[in-house]
Amino acid sequence: MATEVNNDTNHDDHEYTTTGLNHRKMLMWAFLGSDCMFFGALIATYLVYQGKSLVGPYPVDVFDIPVTSVSTFVLLMSSMSMVLAYAALTQNKISGFRIWMASTAIMGATFIGFQVYEFSSFSTFHVDIESCNEKIVKHGIFDEYEEELCANAKEDHVETHDGLQPQTNLFGTTFYTLTGFHGAHVTLGIIWILSLLFLSYKKGMITPERHLDVDLAALYWHFVDVVWIVIFTVIYLFGVFPFPGS
Amino acid sequence: MSQEEAHHPTAKQYFRIAMVLSVITAVEVGIFYLEFLGYWMVPILVVLSTAKFALVVMYYMHLRYEHKLFSYLFVSGVVLATIVIFALVALFSFGIGRW
Fold this sequence. Notes:
The complex is a heterodimer of chains A (246) and B (99). In chain A, 39% of the residues are buried. Chain A is built from 8 helices and 4 strands, in the order ββααααβααβαα. In chain A, strands 1-2 form a two-stranded antiparallel ribbon. In chain A, strands 3-4 form a two-stranded antiparallel sheet. Chain A has 246 residues and is mainly alpha-helical. Helix content of chain A is 65%, strand content 4%. Chain B has helices spanning 3-6, 11-32, 41-60, 68-94. Chain B starts with a helix and ends in a 5-residue tail after the last helix. The relative contact order of chain B is 0.09. The model of chain B has no long low-confidence stretch (mean pLDDT 85). The interface between A and B is large, with 54 and 51 residues.
């Protein structure tokens, strides 16, 4: 039996739904649930192939945890900014809404900037070792990849410019696929946020009564944030940590 | 404003949650450098990142204040994704089901 929408929301209040819940919001939650499975499959693939690359560079060679920590912090702060934009709109503070939306888009773009920097530094990664003598290797100065390079070298000096490309090894393929899809999600979120920001300058388009439009964008934005929380821990922190005996 | 919205956190509470998220991230990175923890690092980081995940979903996405059906839709996706991750890793790590 159809019941009237009892939801908070807005211009859709007149709609009748079987659950009494707003269809657009339900669709968004169903989409986010399905997107969890999408990223779950990509994370599972990365983990399945972890440590199975036959050639370097490996995660320990290229990951820069301090840089990624800063980009993680930026994305977390963008989530706060987004929720403050939503709160400002519901309180009919449209200028506050615009400021927070703009800051969310800027922080999202900064995160993407970090990702572009990371991808470009990975793809141009190079190693230049002046001395490959056994003494230095035994002192543990070299990482796994550098030791491998020295072991295969005919001379004492080794130089390689083999960056990490998607086709380089299993790590490159799975890493770029996972983080690339996440970056695409963030990019789409930035476009969505900017669209709402521009629409707010058009009379009657973004109002406290029509806050569901912003609520849906906010849900999407927070979702890309929670996905990154998982990626940062599972891919970056677990990927670099030298487990005993590994 | 609906009853659900009336219970939404205030701007100050949103800011506090952001600070908690930042501190947890800093702790995660700090723990990462404590090599003596060894394998203990895994459960600690899992707990910390789960806490971050839950904070964002419950308070920023307002799932705590929403209708239960929304929670079922989202949580079922998260649970299924987690099962898929563990199943695939187990399948490939221990050769379960190898023929």
